[in-house]
Every structure is written in structure tokens, then in C-alpha cells.
UniProtKB/TrEMBL annotation:
Compartments reported by the entry: Cell membrane
Listed PANTHER family: CADHERIN-22 (PTHR24027:SF311), CADHERIN-23 (PTHR24027)
Keyword tags: Calcium, Cell adhesion, Cell membrane, Cleavage on pair of basic residues, Glycoprotein, Membrane, Metal-binding, Repeat, Signal, Transmembrane, Transmembrane helix
Domain Cadherin: 30-110, 111-219, 220-334, 335-439, 439-556
Name of protein: Cadherin-22
Lineage: Eukaryota, Metazoa, Chordata, Craniata, Vertebrata
Transmembrane segments: 566-587
GO cellular component, one term: adherens junction
């Protein structure tokens, strides 16, 4: 039995076919095909029926479209052979591939451009700059379509490129950034290994030449000139100079320095970090009269020097700077600058303390006048001669009051007082022995009654306001008035102190409890001065251990006489007290009379004042009875047992009849008091609402009692009749003064 199967050739199709007829690809054939047309061939898969068509009878396959291998390299299809009558598969379905055959239709492309590289200037030949790479879409496995080689189209005089790797290298060793700092190099890539007919592509590579420190600083001028006034203070900027450097970045950083000795002494140069300029400043005061022109040398040098280029020369440069000092009108200068003088404190007024000298430093040498700044010598203790500068005493000096004086002396040009200079002068007052020594304190000592001879009572020290250069040395002795003293002795210890001792056995404080011991103190001079101080010694009672128990503080002998000055002062004080007392009494009386006159002038109140008690009920002459009567008419009730009528003029009878004849405070039914009530209420309302002033208190008298009072009258005068039920027996207990009143009731 013969095995049946598919029979066809290897299928290839050339890309980019440009013919007008379909391109024959190949033929599929089954070994069962006898050529009678009974077999039907069909294909399926990628591009079947569109790109690829098959002849059903012969099995020929044609490509109807233009293919591009760079887009798709092969197509996978499946072939079938069927019985045309029954449509049954005669062969199993088989898969086959149609490959697209490459042609050189794609040029190399630089996909990573644009390219930018850099190389340092003065780099040696062959220094690698960067690498470029081109890509070709053709089939690298078929022919040489994808084999690329590189070459330089532009810039070949400075750079080269490796034909296989694309590495760009320097072709020369003298690349100079200062001449040209960038290059545009065109690199070409060609396929087909560079053979004729190959396709090519190109790209532009920008190569930047970086800087190295191969240029030293250079001053554009060999000399600079500046000018400055001689009074310019230290630190004043004179001018700026700058050295130029063709390099860039940190390679241009430089420092400046003075090269000559004069420049280092008089001037200072610093570098401005922002502008790289040399700033020249004054380091020492200038003087036109001493030197008018200063010539200095300034040197500039790079901070960072590349050792590879040391052989190119020194990386520094120098220039000359000439500074002219300008003359100005300057104030006088004190010479010499000594500021200390000394004078004895006993110097007479007008004595010369010292002389100050000032000169005009200008060429004109104007005369100088002197003065003292009185704000530093307000008391005018010193004077100065305006022409000679001699300082003299203006007042008596006292070292103990002020041992030093600080004054300011002014020196000015005679014809231009605005040009003035000042000098501080310290004057020391030298000590003269003009103060006697004195006891350090008012010494008081206590001694027991049973003290023994030679017992130490007190150690004496003194003070002296003077300060001799050789130090203090004092001498002690009892005063001449104490030469007959047999109770105490004084011992000079020779160290500016003295000791007081008892000289006898025991004391009796009943006889004398206080002793006053005068002590004479003398200093060493010259001249020697002395003073007398008193030591108060009290005699005290002591216990067995020597501890003081009690002392009598009253001196045995005390001079009670007062000086005439003290008596006069005492009398003046007494007189002042008397005058003050009289003045106070006068003011009080005046104030009292003023108040009385004000009270008398206030006529608003009908108040009668009496300051005496009177003579009793029988005395009717002491006051006016009509003042007690009402301004209105009231009913009067005559005596009787409850009966009576109105009447007047019967008050002169016996006391009982007088009582019955007094007017009774009974409101008449015909009187209308609404006017008074309204007036009073209105005044009360005004007083309550007026908040601007304090209330004014006044006493007003109204001639009516009012109506419907809840409290009955307390006056016995208001009884309707003498037959009242009230009991007035308690009046008898009021004493003899009210006996007459008790009888009436």
C-alpha cells in the first residue's frame, strides 16, 4: 500500500513587490490528486482570502498585496484537500508557513538623538568623548542589509568615530575652550557594511569643550591711580582693581595681596567674592604733610592651580597702584600726647599746673588758641591761658574732697574755631598734711570697781584724711590737762595704736562713776598736726568673774553751761512756737465769726434762738410770747369743767386760769391746707430728683399739725379741758426747777 500525503515546495515571498500581477508564492498538491479536478484545495489562517489566494483546482497560491518584512516576517496558514463531490477531507489539515523575504529597504536610524557630549580642553588625541548607535530594521540574519558602519561627515578635522562601535574620539590635542567652546559633528551610519548601494542615516552630535585652568590672571592695566583725603578713617575703601581671567567657573577665583613693604603697612587689600575684584582700603592713618603719594604693588593669583599646566607659566600677575593723598584743613594736634599732670593741694590760686601744646599740622601752620570744656569743669577749678596753653588753678584745691580731676582741653585754629581738637587731661592732687589725726570713734570704756593696777581698759586707734607717701605714723600722749591724772596711764604701742591701763587699785563709783580722759594724737607731718580726743571711762559693778553687772550713766562732773549761741537758738524756737499758737487761735476765731454771720443772714427760717434758761414760768419778760403763737386763728377754750367758749385777754389771772386760757391746737374745719400740702410735696419731689447737688438741709416751721394723725398729741396743752384724766404726779420727781410746773398741773 502506497502512503499518501501533502506535496509542495518551500514557500517564500519577496517584500515590497511592486508588480501589477499577483505574485506567485507556491503550490500545494496532494499525492492523491490525479489531475481530474476531483479534489478541491482551500487555505485558512493569516491573510487567507485577502493577502493570499489559492486556485482550488491546481493549488497555486498568489500574493495579492505588497508585503513588508519589517512589519510582519511570516504568515501561518492551514491547507485542506476535500473531495469536490462529497466535500470530505481527503488529507488531514496541514499547517504551512509563508516567509517574507527581506530586501534592503530600511536605512539606519539614530534613535537616541540628539546627542550632547563634552570633553576637556587640551585633552590628548584619542580621548573618548561619547558613543553613538544606529539601528537598522532590516533582517540581520539575511544578507548585509542590517550591517551598519559609522563615519564622520562634518568635524573630521577635530574628531573621529570608530566605524564599528560608534565611539567618538578627539583627533587633535589642542582643543582650546577660549578659542571655540563647542563643536557640531555630523555622524553617518551606512548599512550593507558600507558597500555601494547601502542605505544611510545621519545625526548631529554637539560636543562642548569644558574649561581647565590653563590661563593665568592678567591685569588689563599696568598702573592704576587713586586719590583720597588725608582725614579718611582707617577702613575707608580707596578703590578697586580687577585682573581678568579667560577661564570660567572656579578657575577664575583669585586672591590679591600686597607685594611691597610700604603697601603692607599703609594699605590692605581684600577680595570681593562676588566680583573677584581687589578692594584696597586704608590700614593706617594718612598724612599729607608726611607723604603725598604712596606707590604699592598688587599681585593677583589663582586660587586653584592645575599641576598639569604649571609648565605653561606662572599663574599670577602684578600691577602698580598709585595713591595720592589730598590735603585738607585739619584741626590742631596735641604734642606730646601726655595726659597726666600733678599739683600740690596747697597750691595758691593762679599757680601753674602744667602746659599743653598743640600745633597746626597743615602747611599754613595757623596759630592755636586753647580753652577748657566747661562741661568737664563746671566749678571752674582750673583756668587755661588761651595763647600759651598754661593750665592754672582757679580755686583752692582739697585732695580730701577730690583727689583727681578729669578735664577736656580744646585746641582750635585762631582764625577758624570750627577746626577744634580735644584732649583729655587727668590732674592728680598731691597730698599735703593739712588734716590732724582724730580718734577713730568716740571711745567709751568700762572698768570694774575692783580693777587692779595695769589692767588694759581700751586700745585706741586714729584716722587721718591725709595720705602721706611714706605712710602714717602717729604718736600718743595724755593731754596737758590730764598731767595730774593718777587713775589711768597711756602706752604708745608704736604701731599707730595706744593702750589705756588702770594705774591704781580699785574705784568707787559712789564717789565718781565717770572719768573723762583727754588723749593727744600727733601725726608725723610735715608739718606735724595734732588733736585731742576724749576717752569716756565708766565705773561699773561687776561679779566675781569680772562680768559687768551695772553702770551709772550719769557723769560725775558735767559742764552744764550752755554757750550764748545755744541759748539764742533755744529762745528763737520758743518764740516761733508762741507765734504759731497765736496764729491758730486767730484763724479759729475768724472762722467762727464768719459762720455766725452766715447764720444771721439766713432769714428763711423763723427760728428763735435763746442761749439762757430764763427765770422760770413767772418770768414773762425774757422772751416775746407772741412768737409762740400761730399765724392763724385757733379756738381758745376757757376754764371750767369741760365747757367754755372763745375769748382773749384773760391770761393775767392765777396760774390755773392762765393754763386754761392758752390757745388749743385744734384745726378749724373751715381751713384748707391743700395748698401747703401740694407745695411741700412739690419741694420734696424736686429735692429727690435733683442729683447734681447735695441735699440742702433746712428747718421749716408750719402752723398746722395735720389731720388724721395715727398718734395723738403728746402735749398737755392740747387737752380740751382741765379735767383731763392724765396723771402729772411724775412731775414732782423732776426736782425744784420744775416745782412750779408740777403745781400748775
Amino acid at each position: 500500500r502506497v502512503k499518501r500525503g501533502w506535496v509542495w515546495n518551500q514557500f517564500f515571498v519577496v517584500e515590497e513587490y511592486t508588480g501589477t500581477e499577483p505574485l506567485y508564492v507556491g503550490k500545494i498538491h496532494s499525492d492523491s490528486d490525479e489531475g481530474d479536478g476531483s479534489i478541491k484545495y482551500t487555505i485558512s489562517g493569516e491573510g487567507a482570502g485577502t493577502i493570499f489566494l489559492i486556485d482550488e483546482i491546481t493549488g497555486d497560491i498568489h500574493a495579492t498585496e505588497r508585503l513588508d518584512r519589517e512589519q510582519k516576517t511570516f504568515y501561518t496558514l492551514r491547507a485542506q484537500a476535500r473531495d469536490r463531490q462529497t466535500d470530505q477531507l481527503l488529507e488531514p489539515e496541514s499547517e504551512f508557513i509563508i516567509k517574507v523575504q527581506d530586501i534592503n529597504d530600511s536605512e539606519p536610524r539614530f534613535l537616541e538623538g540628539p546627542y550632547i557630549g563634552s570633553v576637556a580642553e587640551l585633552s590628548p588625541i584619542g580621548t573618548s568623548v561619547m558613543q553613538v548607535m544606529a539601528s537598522d530594521a532590516d533582517d540581520p540574519t539575511y544578507g548585509s542589509s542590517a550591517r551598519v558602519v559609522y563615519s564622520v561627515l562634518e568635524g573630521e578635522q577635530h574628531f573621529t568615530v570608530d566605524s564599528k562601535t560608534g565611539v567618538i574620539r578627539t583627533a587633535v590635542a589642542d582643543l582650546d575652550r577660549e578659542t571655540q567652546d563647542r563643536y557640531e559633528v555630523v555622524i553617518r551610519a551606512t548599512d550593507m557594511a558600507g558597500q555601494l548601494g547601502g542605505l544611510s542615516g545621519s545625526t548631529t552630535v554637539t560636543i562642548v569643550v569644558t574649561d581647565v585652568n590653563d590661563n593665568p590672571p592678567r591685569f588689563p592695566q599696568k598702573m592704576y591711580q587713586f586719590s583720597i583725603v588725608e582725614t579718611a578713617p582707617v577702613g575707608t575703601a580707596i578703590g578697586r582693581v580687577k585682573a581678568e581671567d579667560s577661564d570660567v567657573g572656579e578657575n577664575t577665583d583669585m586672591t590679591y595681596q600686597m607685594k611691597d613693604e610700604e603697601g603692607v603697612e599703609m594699605f590692605k587689600v581684600t577680595t570681593d567674592g562676588n566680583t573677584q575684584e581687589a578692594v584696597i582700603t586704608v590700614q593706617k592713618p594718612l598724612d599729607y604733610e608726611s607723604k603725598k603719594v604712596h606707590t604699592v604693588v598688587v599681585e593677583a593669583l589663582n586660587k586653584f592651580v592645575d599641576p598639569r599646566f604649571v609648565d605653561l607659566g606662572t599663574f599670577r600677575d602684578q600691577t602698580i597702584v598709585r595713591v595720592s593723598v589730598l590735603d585738607v584743613d585739619e584741626p590742631p594736634e596735641f604734642r606730646p600726647p601726655s595726659n597726666l599732670m600733678e599739683v600740690q593741694e596747697d597750691a595758691h590760686i593762679g599757680s601753674v599746673v602744667g602746659v599743653v601744646t598743640a600745633l597746626d599740622p597743615d602747611t599754613a601752620n595757623h596759630p592755636v588758641r586753647y580753652a577748657i570744656d566747661r562741661s568737664t569743669d563746671a566749678e571752674r577749678i582750673f583756668d587755661i591761658d588761651a595763647n600759651t596753653g598754661a593750665i592754672m588753678t582757679g580755686k583752692v584745691l582739697d585732695r580730701e574732697t577730690a583727689g583727681w580731676h578729669n578735664i577736656t582741653v580744646l585746641a582750635m585754629e585762631a582764625d577758624n574755631h570750627s577746626q577744634v581738637s580735644r584732649a583729655s587731661l587727668r590732674i592728680r592732687i598731691l597730698d599735703v598734711n593739712d588734716n590732724p589725726p582724730e580718734l577713730a570713734t568716740p571711745y567709751e570704756a568700762a572698768v570694774c570697781e575692783d580693777a587692779k593696777p595695769g589692767q588694759l581698759i581700751q586700745t585706741i586707734s586714729v584716722v587721718d584724711r591725709d595720705e602721706p607717701q611714706s605712710g602714717h605714723h602717729f604718736y600718743f600722749a595724755l593731754a596737758p590737762e590730764a598731767t595730774n591724772n593718777h587713775h589711768f596711764s597711756l602706752l604708745d604701742i608704736k604701731d599707730n595704736t595706744a593702750a589705756v591701763h588702770t594705774q591704781r587699785m580699785g574705784f568707787n563709783r559712789q564717789e565718781q562713776d565717770v572719768y573723762l580722759l583727754p588723749i593727744l594724737v600727733v601725726d608725723s607731718g610735715p608739718p606735724a598736726l595734732s588733736s585731742t580726743g576724749t576717752l569716756t571711762i565708766r565705773i561699773c559693778g561687776c561679779d566675781s568673774s569680772g562680768a559687768i553687772q551695772s553702770c551709772n550713766s550719769t557723769a560725775y562732773v558735767v559742764s552744764a553751761t550752755l554757750s550764748p549761741g545755744a541759748l539764742i537758738a533755744l529762745l528763737v524756737c520758743v518764740l516761733i512756737l508762741v507765734v504759731l499758737v497765736l496764729l491758730i487761735l486767730t484763724l479759729k476765731r475768724h472762722h467762727k465769726s464768719h459762720l455766725t454771720s452766715e447764720d444771721d443772714e439766713d432769714m428763711r427760717d423763723n427760728v428763735i434762738k435763746y442761749n439762757d434758761e430764763g427765770g422760770g414760768e413767772q418770768d414773762t419778760e425774757a422772751y416775746d410770747m407772741s412768737a409762740l403763737r400761730s399765724l392763724y386763728d385757733f379756738s381758745e377754750i376757757k376754764g371750767g369743767d369741760g365747757g367754755g367758749g372763745p375769748g382773749e385777754g384773760s391770761l393775767s389771772g392765777n396760774p390755773a386760769s392762765e393754763l386754761r386760757a392758752l390757745p388749743q391746737w385744734v384745726q378749724s374745719p373751715d381751713l384748707d391746707f391743700t395748698v401747703f400740702r401740694d407745695y411741700i410735696c412739690k419741694k420734696v419731689e424736686q429735692a429727690d430728683k435733683d442729683l447734681s447737688v447735695p441735699p440742702y438741709d433746712s428747718f421749716q416751721t408750719y402752723a398746722f399739725e395735720g389731720s388724721d394723725s395715727p398718734v395723738p398729741s403728746l402735749s398737755s396743752i392740747n387737752t380740751w379741758s382741765s379735767g383731763s384724766e392724765q396723771d402729772f404726779s411724775y412731775l414732782g420727781a423732776w426736782g425744784p426747777r420744775f416745782r412750779q410746773l408740777a403745781a400748775l398741773y
